[in-house]
Design goal:
alpha/beta, Rossmann fold, 6-stranded mixed beta sheet, 4-stranded antiparallel beta sheet, globular, disordered C terminus
Length: about 230
């Protein structure tokens, strides 16, 4: 697995809702190489966000195994999973989840301070420059546009120097032009710092900016570039 960031082995996630069994994931296996940019597409409810949550250690599968950066998530307890999420995964969501009473710079460094790690201020300065936000580091979220808030969220995710960046509909609240710009910046920075990038999206134009597209239907992978599985 030296050349892989993610290896997912036959994971399933089933829910019992009344008399019905909901199969959010129904036997997914995939491998994602280090430094790869992958987009995962599919209709609402197909299981793509559930898969992202499994890879990020936000949820655990009913069965199957997830490896991230050579670590078996199934062997971790809750405390170890929390540490894994804080140290190895940078999350970017559709909702920016910024703290309104903190300025841009403090929003970025706050998770690092909570984790008690040394803050690499020079690295954060370079991130802000790359994201065209250095001149706005003293501003508060209410003073920013939607695209600028998402850039802050990206900087916060990248500040921990994660092995993998997981973005769930990161352009959902942005107009088309701003969305493309934000993804372009995220792609460029992930490449610059040798990080693996996985984006969940329903926007095919955004998906096509990736190196690889995985399509999910009914909890199964139905297309992975030109490779069809689960047929």
């Amino acid at each position: 697995m030296d050349n892989l960031t993610v290896k997912v082995v036959n994971i399933k996630k089933h829910y019992q809702v009344g008399n019905h069994m909901i199969k959010a994931l129904d036997g997914i296996s995939l491998e994602i190489k280090k430094h790869e940019f992958v987009s995962i597409i599919g209709k609402s409810g197909c299981g793509k966000s559930t898969l992202l949550h499994m890879i990020g250690g936000l949820d655990i599968p009913t069965s199957g195994t997830v490896f991230v950066d050579n670590m078996n998530l199934a062997q971790m307890n809750h405390k170890q999973l929390a540490l894994f999420r804080r140290r190895k995964v940078g999350f970017v969501f559709q909702q920016y989840n910024l703290i309104p009473d903190l300025n841009v710079y403090d929003n970025i460094t706050f998770p690092l301070e909570l984790d008690g790690v040394n803050i690499d201020h020079e690295f954060i300065r370079k991130l802000l420059i790359s994201l065209h936000m250095e001149d706005k580091k003293e501003l508060y979220p209410s003073m920013l546009s939607g695209g600028e808030r998402q850039r802050v969220a990206i900087a916060r995710a990248l500040a921990i120097k994660p092995a993998i960046i997981l973005a769930d509909e990161p352009t959902g609240n942005l107009d088309t032009s701003t969305g493309h710009e934000v993804i372009g910046l995220l792609k460029g920075i992930a490449k610059q710092y040798n990080q693996t990038l996985i984006i969940i999206t329903h926007n095919l134009d955004i998906a096509q900016m990736a190196d690889r597209i995985i399509q999910i239907e009914d909890g199964m992978i139905v297309k992975d570039d030109d490779l069809y599985v689960n047929e």
